[in-house]
Specification:
- This protein is of the alpha+beta class.
- The protein has three domains: 161 residues, D-Maltodextrin-Binding Protein, domain 2 (3-Layer(aba) Sandwich), CATH 3.40.190; 79 residues, Periplasmic binding protein-like II (D-Maltodextrin-Binding Protein, domain 2), CATH 3.40.190; 95 residues, ACT domain (Alpha-Beta Plaits), CATH 3.30.70.260.
- The chain is 21% helix and 29% strand.
- It is built from nine helices and 20 strands.
- The strands form five sheets. Strands 4, 5, 6, 7, 8 and 14 form a six-stranded mixed sheet that branches.
- The protein is globular.
- The two termini are 26 Å apart.
- The structure holds prephenic acid.
- The site of prephenic acid has 15 residues, from helix 1, strand 6, helix 4 and helix 6.
């Protein structure tokens, strides 16, 4: 996309925080100003956005969009991951995307007074917690329409962070364009691949003659349209992104299902102590070496103890992707090997969960508990805008 530079500025304004998430107003609840603070040295890493070079601006037929495009902090990238700052008073929560992304809203729901830190990749969000730049990372893992976000399952395994909570966020998509643009002018719609998938049928029903292109995050798509003054391109993103980047909402609630929900997990360096005084979920990942009957045995360890599974996901076992079985007469069978991710409804403080895992361990070649954490029990409200 466009190029940015970082600058160290001193002194810096304090980052603003999320208001309490219990506010029920239908207008935007989250007004998180993001910056990565280094309070111990009195300097703040402020990431400023420069104007894009003229050749990126297109036809230079600029639409006035006022203050909404004043310089904003840029997402952290790998090169920002220097030694950790001291703790501030607010929890620092890393998310992938730019302000206005649903992941930022999820950070605000999980930690109402947090300083949300935008990161340009999921990997950077993990690393920012590992390097003490952030205290938590918030990560989308599955959506009710688009399914699992596989990359994050792989990253959960590659990194040693612990799942300490989950939030389920209703995702209400809007079609955004520069002010004054009509749907008929559009030739392209850009967004995060999950958002494009979640709006697939509605986009067709709207009768738009557009190509669909994937970018890193929904709010980043809105920012890209605004910064580059793209008159032929719309973005799928939140109403908050429209507000932040000075875009107009051409269509509201364009997700294919009004109950569209994304589940996010919160990650920390240390696990939380599991409890039994409220509903808990536990996430595990395992591998086995002896074919599909083992999977049946593993799952029955939960069934016999009346433990419900809420999710099962398989991913390629990257270190042993293929198991070769030679049969002298019939040739060579090549079976794919998998890692299985399972979420179950029990706390690791419960003996039935401990016993189930002890049994699972007998059948598996690898087992890791990713976390045991409180379930998101917020009431179901599919029509709410976020
Ligand atoms: O792009 C964003 O706004 C995100 O927060 C990412 C993401 C995702 O990865 O699924 C989160 C929620 C929505 O399902 C669409 C996109």
């Amino acid at each position: 996309m466009q190029s940015f530079t970082h600058s160290l500025v001193k002194p810096a304004p304090p980052p603003s925080t999320y208001p309490n998430a219990t506010t029920t107003s239908s207008t935007r609840r989250h007004h998180c100003q993001i910056s990565s603070s280094r309070r111990h040295s009195n300097t703040t890493l402020v990431v400023s956005q420069q104007q894009p070079p003229a050749d990126h601006i297109g036809d230079l037929n600029l639409v006035p969009i006022g203050d909404s495009l004043k310089p904003r902090p840029k997402p952290l990238s790998i090169t920002d991951l220097a030694p950790a700052p001291m703790h501030g008073s607010n929890l620092r929560v890393a998310y992938q995307g730019v302000p206005g992304a649903y992941s930022e809203a999820a950070a605000g729901k999980a930690y109402p007074n947090c300083d949300a830190i935008p990161c340009d990749q999921f990997e950077v969000a993990f690393q920012s917690v590992e390097l003490w730049i952030a205290d938590r990372a918030v990560l989308p893992v599955e959506n009710s329409l688009g399914g699992s976000i596989h990359r994050n399952y792989d990253l959960l395994l590659r990194h040693k962070l612990h799942i300490v909570g989950e939030v389920q966020l209703p995702v209400h998509h809007c079609l955004l364009a520069l002010p004054g643009i009509q749907k008929e002018y559009l030739t392209r719609v850009i967004s995060h691949p999950q958002a494009l998938a979640q709006c697939e049928h509605t986009l067709t029903k709207l009768g738009l003659n557009v190509t669909r292109e994937a970018v890193d995050d929904t709010a980043g798509a809105a920012e890209f349209v605004a910064i580059n003054n793209l008159r032929d391109t719309a973005a799928i993103a939140s109403a908050r992104a429209a507000e932040l980047y000075g875009l107009e909402i051409l269509a509201n609630g364009i997700q294919d299902d009004s109950g569209n929900i994304t589940r996010f997990v919160m990650l920390a360096r240390e696990p939380i102590v599991p409890r039994i005084d409220r509903p808990f979920k536990t996430s595990i990942v395992f591998a086995h070496e002896k074919g599909t009957s083992v999977l049946f045995k593993v799952l029955s360890a939960f069934a016999f103890r009346n433990i419900s599974l809420t999710k099962i996901e398989s991913r390629p076992h990257r270190s042993h992707p293929i198991r070769v079985v030679d049969d002298a007469d019939g040739g060579t069978a090549k079976h794919f090997e998998y890692l299985f991710y399972v979420d179950f409804e029990a706390s690791m403080a419960e003996p039935r969960a401990q016993n189930a895992l002890a049994e699972v361990q007998e059948f598996t070649s690898f087992l890791r508990v990713l976390g045991s954490y409180p379930m998101d029990m917020t009431p179901w409200s599919p029509s709410r805008e976020d």
